[in-house]
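Training component of the fellowship. As part of building independent skills, the fellow (R.M.) carried out the full modelling exercise for a liganded target. The chosen ligand was cytidine-5'-monophosphate. The inputs are recorded below so that the supervisory panel can assess the work.
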Amino acid sequence: MAETSRKSVVLGVTGGIAAYKAAELTRELARNGIEVQVVMTEAARGLVAPATFQALSGKPVYTDLWDARAADNMAHIELSRGKDAIVVAPATADFIAKLAQGLADDLLSTLCLARECPLIVAPAMNRQMWDNPATRRNIERLLRDGVAILGPASGDQACGEVGMGRMLEARDIAEAVTAFLAPKSLRGARVLITAGPTFETIDAVRGITNRSSGKMGYAVARAALEAGARVTLISGPTSLAAPAGAQRVDVVSARDMFEAVKKRVADADIFVSVAAVSDYHVASPQRQKIKRSARRLRLDLLPNPDILAWVAARPRPPFCVGFAAETENLRKHAEAKRRAKKVPLLAANLAQQAIGADDNELTLFDDAGAHKLPRASKQVVARQLVAHIAKLFKEASSKR
Ligand code: C5P
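Fellow's submitted model of the complex:
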């Protein structure tokens, strides 16, 4: 199994009202397996207590340039050594101006100037400050210097106004930072993913569907994007937001999904079929709502195409990955399914533990045997699955 080494960042918190969101950001980054060293400016300490960040990151918080706890009293050099990035969130207009000028009059600005790693900045300020030509100039300067700018977003502001300048939500910043740091094991690969349930119409208001939430497929899409892939996500009806950067195609029935896949499969290097596709559709769906009556009602069902098996049987198929949700005898059914569908990799889980849940436990079946991915959040499991797909895809590509 491909292991990814633990990433670590300095999280710089400056004195904007959005500093409270940095606490949530610390948690989200930690949840994504990223080690966080928090550095606060003096002004930020007036907004959120350092103890909050210390508790969430598990590390002492630094503010002072000459903090004696740092090795050789050199906090301004030591704290960013070996880090994968410095993330400043929130970054006030004042701090952005300092970065643009290369000023270094406190620990955080000095760390930014003395760094060897990439710098990621999430601005947060009042809309007039954001629109001011001075800020515009400073942001352009930072972009030219190779600094990554995340946001800001438009929306309600602490001052009561509405406009551009609001810091992105912690979850979005964490997602972008995680993607930035992820190994680019699928760089440039075109990945087609199906996700979610399908819905087969019975009449104007009813249908046959299943309890798939789409969470696993969306997590795979996000992990593939993080790994540098170009992702098309063909999704059945879900309430989830598509991961930023994915091209999303919404479908309803299994046959819609099949058509959407057929249209795009020739341009795919990898096909990951996570969708819980309905095995049957209703032979003659009714236009009007079926009325209740005392008589027996029979639904005539016809089989749906097996999308994955069809893709895998193409003359030059993409690298195909199937999913199998079983209720018992996982290994036996999964191995039989892998052979029947002729796919090189099949990810199997127990339906009762996986469907709709936030966590999952997968067993991967390939030519080398079975590999267990221990229970974790679907996003963590998806990253491990993508790492495994990237490894097998690379091996398969070198044999072609
Ligand atoms: O045979 P079963 O439905 O359990 O197979 C599951 C795998 O096949 C999943 O990867 C699923 O997305 C795919 N599948 C499909 N088209 C179908 C049924 C399943 O692509 N009609």
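The panel noted the following from the submitted structure. The two ends are 22 Å apart (CA to CA). Residues 194, 254, 273, 275, 277, 279, 304, 306-308, 322-324, 337 surround cytidine-5'-monophosphate (CB under 6 Å).
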